[in-house]
């Protein structure tokens, strides 16, 4: 175990303390959902005309499909507001004196991903030591990766950084590939080194995702809380993935990614926070007890390309009720181009569709994910432009559902979409340098929702096609901006 240098164990500076406090006091808004819901419901009920045609029945089904996920998401936002009302009962974050934290950062080690890796790793060694005197940062690389010399040079700058190299000849028992293979190698190494213990925590991060003093405070608060809980403590936790404006090289994709932190404060907060991460987890800011990770591993087979989601479903089966959510943030970067944005979504959809049909996972853990993925990949068929085009072809522009009660569900679903982009943008602006949205950003992000939904849906639909065509799985790694 590596200890942080003595001089870095000082608690956060006054400026950092203000940042921690500002983030801790954030809570999701109610009006950004309530106002669109009332307007949409009012207009829908006013303009409703019974439509028992095939188009009416089809729209009644496809536009109601997201309803279950929306209700779960709203539950998550309300849970955050409820927890913040009880924040006076929470113990303030203090340094973790007994538990050991290992930050695991897998990287493909290309030159175009190295700048983001350097930014992220330097943030770990700057912000985590004040709260984690026992700390090590493991940079996980593949033998012979093109940026190996630069990564080794980075590790030489700080004793907390260790490079773990996966041998090219390494194979898992089930033939797992890609990032899961590397994670499994690191997991076996921890077992061999005697670190698969209850008081060792593994913080999984991506190579383009950094942390701040607020991240360190939130993780420390969670770990200390589990030590006090004893045998009733949680084994897994997830925080929020946010996108500071200054990390973005493309403002358009940065606005499009507003939806991602909103998912963390909605579905993930509800499900992971209540102990059953059936919607999966993401690979950033994923905290796992090393002893528990040792019982699961990452050897999910050669088709696994969404290893984090599969780990979450396995965790649901083996450790029901033992996951949690914490109000901490990590800091990533949106894709550099629209093409990369779609490629990223395509890979996720491809892997998630495969996971939904993976019979090694009991259906009771897959059904919710299946519903969410179906809503996503069939998004282009639900798009307003698609519906209007079909209505024009058949000469019937009555796009009402078959029953008036369905209008309320539609209003709920569409208001939720507006809320996710509004609150996600607010979160991304909060973690940016000036801490606030620019006056034009909410207007633009709301106006571009139809465009963003096409981009999301296109990636999802392409992922579905690749699964149906049974193409060979590929773990596509896009370029990472610095």
Automatic annotation (TrEMBL):
Membrane-spanning ranges: 30-48, 60-80, 367-395, 401-422, 443-465
Q: Domain of life of the organism in this record?
A: Bacteria
- Glycosyltransferase 2-like domain: residues covered: 201-414
Q: Which Pfam families does the entry mention?
A: Glyco_trans_2_3 (PF13632)
Keyword set includes RNA-binding: no
Which Gene Ontology MF annotations are present? beta-1,4-mannosyltransferase activity
Does the keyword section mention Zinc-finger? Answer: no
Tell me which GO cellular component terms the UniProt record holds: cytoplasm
Keywords annotated in UniProt:
Membrane, Transferase, Transmembrane, Transmembrane helix
Official protein name in the record: Membrane glycosyltransferase
Q: What is the originating organism of this protein?
A: Streptomyces roseus
